[in-house]
Amino acid sequence: MGGRHRTDDLDDGYASSREPSRRRRGGRGKVLVPLAGSVAFAVLLGVAAFVIINPDEDCSGEAAELRVTASPDIHLAVSQIAERFNKAGHEVGDGCASVKVAKAASATVASTLSGGGGKAGAMDLWIPDSSLWVTNVRSKNPAVPAPIVSVAQSPVVMTASGSVVANLEKNLGEASWARMIEATNAANVEGPGRKVRVLALDPALNAAGLGALLAASAVATTAGVGDEQLVGAMKTLSVSTVKDQNALLSSLSVKGTRVPLGVSSEQGVWAFNHTKKPEVPAVPLYPAEGTFNLDYPAVIVAKDAGAREVAEAFVKELGTPAAQKTLQGQGFRTPDGKGGKAVSEDGFKAEAPEALPTPDAKTVARMSQSWSRINLGTRLVTLLDVSGTMAYPIPGTGMTRMQAIAKISIEGMKPFPNSSEMGLWEFSTHLDGQGVDYRELVSVGPLTENVEGVLRRDLINQRLAGIRARATGDTGLNDSLAAAYQMMKDGYKADKINTILVMTDGAGNDDPDGGMSNQELLQFLKKEFDPEKPISILIIAFGPDAPKGKRQMQAVAKATNGDAYVVNNILDIRKVFLEGMSRRLCSPHC
């Protein structure tokens, strides 16, 4: 197996390890007459020259073709190795092996193999950038073979423009996954995120992005960081994800109010510096806790015996010293982590970073699903209590309850992408005529939609900044909730997580003029709730009276698979925002 070839002296250091074949395409003949010494010597020299100069004439018969699909980053190196392999004249069966290398995004091929509808061409050998793709594919389609070997390696690293590394270290400290989580923690508005902006590759499309997410999750779990912080980081990153690695690396040099920090493969940083030749090169930053490696597995998917034989021979070729030298020359490491000259200069480290344990299939699937659900669209209406007690001051803050909750609400909007649909209501009693306890301040719709001459996101912020409590207002929560629920149900969006967020300082419903009772509200919600079209209610209650209504508010929220939170410190609402966001991972079955 592996075929036969006919030369001992080829370019780029490739050398034959077999005896020359005796086959010739032009037939066989015999020397019938003894030749004179000089003539015979000249003829033999000519034959020898023909064999060395024309190694392609080693094989006969129909070509045995191998179709290789490689990740775009490793495509050039694999193509160069294939070209030498073809020149060597490997013979399989009665034909000469011919390797053709195409490139396709690993996510696209993975989607095709798992039945997700991706459009990848026919192939016999697949070389994605990471076995994470193969793990995901095999969980959905066990018929896909397991990888037989890793052909190269490239660690997932953080990266920044060389011009800002010193400033980055000042504001973030050493490069680490833990510090990255802190910089993307939406609840920590005073943290390093004020000075550092983290850019990530979309984990659904890029293995380096998924590897970074898995690394951050593993480090967070080890450190005992709460799920809500990791979810908050994921949500923040979802707003700043970049689909293309080169686009991410190019953006590192764009000046702004915050220092950009990216995530990439080590080889991606090297390739960017050598192909784009930026004025200031990007620098790889190796996480202190270790990292995951892109491992470029070889997966033979050919069913034809001849193609499989060629595939096995070519995979063996990829492990030869000559092939590994080619890969190292283009910024890759060998499967055991050895870097060549390319990764021993300009901020790169010749020594491989510590490798984090490879996650199992369930962990990879769970993280992929979590990212998918975090990125589901949002359709949210916020009901803000403007009853009289919201005008009370909060000791030690210099703010009223109304001012504090408005400020936190503005902060809470920031992680939501522009594709979100949001709206704002206020509620108390008799806000829009006798018996109407609610009033729409901003209709629910896309944040980027123009409303009253401004974007909806900006209009919501304006309304929040200017909202005031009604000195004589009570808390008509039940009627307001019922009306909001009906509105959200009428406009339900299946591609989004539909939620009603209530922020109040009361003990639930307090409507002395009548309206819907607590029991009537529960009956209404249980009747209207549809698990196939879930609309969840989240209630955040704060203030000294809030605990009194905790039982009823929890019953209201649970009737819609939602939740109710009672907080003592109004600033803790930031954490509750993240807890509520983490419910996206289990909705509607939390």
Main traits of this protein?
single chain; 590 residues; alpha/beta; 6-stranded mixed sheet; 19 helices; elongated; disordered N terminus
What does this structure look like?
The longest helix has 17 residues. It is built from 19 helices and 23 strands. It has a six-stranded mixed beta sheet. A six-stranded mixed beta sheet has the order 18-17-14-21-22-23, sandwiched between helices. Strands 6, 7, 10, 11 and 12 form a five-stranded mixed beta sheet that branches. It is elongated, with a radius of gyration of 32 Å. The protein is α/β, with parallel strands linked by helices and 590 residues long. The N terminus is likely disordered. InterPro entries: VWF_A (IPR002035), vWFA_dom_sf (IPR036465).
Quick structural gist:
The protein has 590 residues and is an alpha/beta fold.
Largest sheet: 6 strands, mixed
Give the DSSP E fraction (strand runs of 2 or more residues): 15-25%
State the share of residues found in helices, binned by percent.
Answer: 25-40%
> Cα distance, first to last residue?
55 Å
The class by helix and strand makeup works out as alpha/beta
Radius of gyration, Cα only, in angstroms?
A: 32 Å
List the strand order in the largest sheet.
Answer: 2-3-1-4-13-5
The shape is elongated
The count of helical stretches stands at: 19
How would you describe the oligomerization state of the chains in this entry? single chain
Q: Please give the number of β-strands.
A: 23
Low-pLDDT runs of 5+ residues are 1-57
Q: Averaged pLDDT, please?
A: 84
